[in-house]
Structure formats: structure tokens, C-alpha cells
Amino acid sequence: MNQYCSKPVFSVKAPGRICLLGEHQDYLGLEVISGAMNLCVQLTAEPSDQKRKLHVQLQNTGENLIMDTSEYLEPDGRNYLQSGLNVMLSKGCRFTSGYNITVSGDLPIGKGVSSSSALCVGWIKLLAAIADKTIDLDPLLTAQLAFESEVVRFGEPGGMQDHIASAIGGLLHLNFRNTPDQLPEIKHLNPIPAGFLLVDSGSSKDTLGMISRIRNTVHHQYKSLFPGNTFDPGEIRVSDLPNPETDSAVEFKELRGTLENLALTRKTVSSWPVKSDEFHKFLPPLINTHHQILSSCIGSSTPAIDKCIGKCLDAGASAGKVIGSGGGGCILVYAPKNTDRVCRNLNRDGITYRKVHFSSGVSLRSH
């Protein structure tokens, strides 16, 4: 307990996201295999003597914010914390008590593992706990409110898979059924594979630019092929596109890649192993094919990323793919049999990496 009041200290952990298959599918209303990871954003709120004030220290960026909880303020730039507070105020929450809040964690920022979405999920969970009338949010509502605060309120092009993965945890098959701004059909996938590394490519990325380009391009290509039809790529097949031997097929490579990724995700879900010892043979061709599509059709990989994946494969990894929006950021490497050898090679080359695994969703504790 804190000396200023009887309210406890609250701690929230919100995990980042690993998209195993289906990158750039959720915001198109398609299907994704995605889950929470063991790296997370952590928020700790300690009661203070300043009513209606939240003093927020973001340790990883060095920023300090003072937020007034008594009024609705338009956020400055992409201020997801103010946006999240606005969302909760609009839902009827009120915040009389003051808190000193620290934001920290081991989740890489701007590297394709949904650090901003994890922050929004954790922030919504924390605000629900420190409100005058504590709200016990279920994971899906937490995800929806986080999505609203990060994407909807800013008119951004992203999807909801990151928020759902962080809020629910485990490994999930998400089918958005052509409604990317609505909750998808959710299926928990078990057993869950292990033996992954998160490898930093050493290059930065432009998340919003990449997502906007791909979404707009796929929409344009679909409408040019099917004028007058409602956008619904889940209802067409690769065979409905121009023959790949013709020059015109080049113009539809992003749409082709989207449909190939969708088919790959559906195939993976329908044949998901029943035993964990089957993954080392089952996953590599799927992950490697997924990356080839992302690199050659979607355009979310780079020569530097492809080179880094090649180094990992040469060192004994079974598979590797760009993760997140791409154009930089991190690589997901699958090395269930030769993890230590791959790590030694990465250490030798001075490449930053972390061992990662799928984990539980957002959690709250008080003390």
C-alpha cells in the first residue's frame, strides 16, 4: 500500500506479438496465425498525493508526461496514452486519484513485434484498474479498446491482430471474415511450437508507410480486376488472377502474394500437428515459403533482411522470416534443433537476438 491512500500499487505486463504466418493479412480482413511472446511492456502505477494527475515516465524513451484525468484532450501527435485515456473517459470512467506511473520492459521498440500495441493493451488494462470504479475488463474488450485508442482514433491503417494476441495470449488462428475492424473468429492452436529466435536486422522500418502502401495497392489491384465488386479477397483464388506468364501479371503481384499467403495460412491451420515433435518437419517449409512471398510479392523484406536470414540458415536454422510490417526491424528464426549453434554464429557476427517463445496474455496484479 502507498502512504497517500489505501489504494494498492498496480503492475501490468503486456506482451508483444509474434506473427507466425499471415503477415499483412489482418487489416485486409483475412486470416492470421499469431500469438503473444515472452517479451513485454511493463507498467507500474503507484498512488500519489496529486489528485487527477498521472505522472508517466517512459523509461525506454526518456519521456515524461503529466496527464490531467479531469478532461478530454486531443492527443499531440501519436500520443497513444492520451488517446487511451480519452477512450476510457468516453466509456464513462473517471479518475480522481493521482498516480506515478513508470513504463518499462524488454520488448524492442519499433522492431516489428508490436511494442505500441502492447503499450496500448497494458495502458487500457491499467486505466481500468485505477479508475474510481474498477473495471474488470475481459481480454477481448481490452483488445478492442486498445485497438480504438491506437488505430481508430488516429485513422491509421493497421489491424487488430496485435491487440488480440497481446490481450489473450497463446497461439491463435484469427479469421477476420472481411471485417478487419471487428473481432475475428478465434481458435487456440495446440500444441505450441518452440525453438524461436528474434533477430534484429539492424535496420529501421516505416510501419505506417509500409502498411498503407500494401493495403492501398491490394485494394487497387482487386478493384481493377473485379470492378464493381465489394472488396473481399478471401473469396477469390490465385487461379482467378492473370496468368503469371503474361506481363500484366506483374501488376498484380501484391494481390497474388496476399492470396498465396491466405492459402498458406489456411493449409497450415487445417493440418496443424497433434504432437510437438512434428513441428521441426512441419513448420520450416511453411515459414520459408511465407518469407519468399513477403520478399518477392508483398515487398516487405529487404536485401539486408534476406542476407541475415541466409546467415541463420547457413548456421543451422530451419527457417526464417521478416516479422511485422517489414522494411526493417526483426526477423523470426526457427531453430529447434540447432539453437545454440545459431546463437554462437550470431554472437560472432555481433548480431543482436533474443530467445523467444509464445506466452500468456496481458496480466494485472496489485500489491
Description:
- The protein has helices at residues 80-90, 115-130, 139-150, 161-168, 207-225, 253-270, 279-298, 303-314, 339-348; strands at residues 10-21, 31-48, 53-58, 63-68, 98-105, 171-175, 185-188, 196-200, 319-322, 330-334, 353-356, 363-366.
- By secondary structure, it is of the alpha+beta class.
- The protein has two domains: 10-189 and 360-366, Ribosomal Protein S5, domain 2 (2-Layer Sandwich); 196-356, Alpha-Beta Plaits, CATH 3.30.70.890.
- Helix 1 (80-90) packs across helix 2, helix 2 (115-130) packs across helix 4 and helix 6 packs antiparallel against helix 7.
- It is globular, with a radius of gyration of 21 Å.
Question: Layout of SSEs?
Answer:
Layout: E1 10-21, E2 31-48, E3 53-58, E4 63-68, H1 80-90, E5 98-105, H2 115-130, H3 139-150, H4 161-168, E6 171-175, E7 185-188, E8 196-200, H5 207-225, H6 253-270, H7 279-298, H8 303-314, E9 319-322, E10 330-334, H9 339-348, E11 353-356, E12 363-366
Parallel strand pairs: 3-5
Antiparallel strand pairs: 1-2, 1-12, 2-5, 2-6, 3-4, 6-7, 8-10, 8-11, 9-10
Helix pairs in contact: 1-2, 1-3, 2-3, 2-4, 3-4, 6-7
